[in-house]
Amino acid sequence: MTLWIRALRLFSLPASAMPILVASAYVFSLHRQGLADPAWWLLPLVAVAGISYHLGANLISDYHDWKSGVDRPDTYGSSRLLVNGELPPPAFLRAGFALVGLGTILGFVMIHFTSWTLLWFGLAGCFGGVFYTRFKYAALGELVIFTLFGPLMVAGTVFALIGEVPRAAWYLALPLACLTTNILLANNTRDIAHDRRVPIRTMPILLGIRAAKAEYALLLGTAYLAVALMAAASILDAWTLLVFLTAPMAWRNIRYIGRAEVDEPARIKEGDVMAARLQMLFSIALSGGILIGAY
Length: 295
What we know:
single chain, mainly alpha, 13 helices
């Protein structure tokens, strides 16, 4: 069991759990204003389905990274279980598809009680998760993560709960998309030298390390700016400015990624974990601000 816990890479769970949390807080605020009558009993299904897709994609991605030679004994990232021979590859892949299957089954249950429109959210999540590595190897990984863990996850949660997606929900997805994308961007920036040894292309390889660092800082800045602008425009309550309590951590992350050197990946080996931690705390602060404002 311990091996499978490692295989799932639970440190990355905020990537899928936090958009659901923030979307749920937003729906609650609509409910408090009398603008929505949420089907709260569907929320556990939404959470389990979304997280299942995410964890299944983690396993499938690790399998393909091992098979293609991206993950080796001297590389960082992944759960290391396939590289170290601690779990059989076929079991790894089967478990990944089993989790995707679980998410799909739950998705059809939700469709039964809501609308077939929800199918499109599910199909996008399933397709993006199963074929994620193909996108990543073509320098499209950041774009896929931005889309899946931002607009798709937030809007899908809101739609499942209230049967529509207000415009503000799409705006709300932007900071989450930016911060979640930085988890992958930090990972790919660290792995530039290792990824160049195999026939793949990632965004940092195409952009170069200096541009990758600038993109990381830009995404972080955009996340905070988006919340500030939404608060100024009364799209979000002023309490959501609590996210700025995490700004010192964001600055530390920028400085940490700024240390990156192509030939010294160990300098930012914890960059993806740090990005995931920031995304989680930012999301908790954002959700808290929305809930306080609702009262």
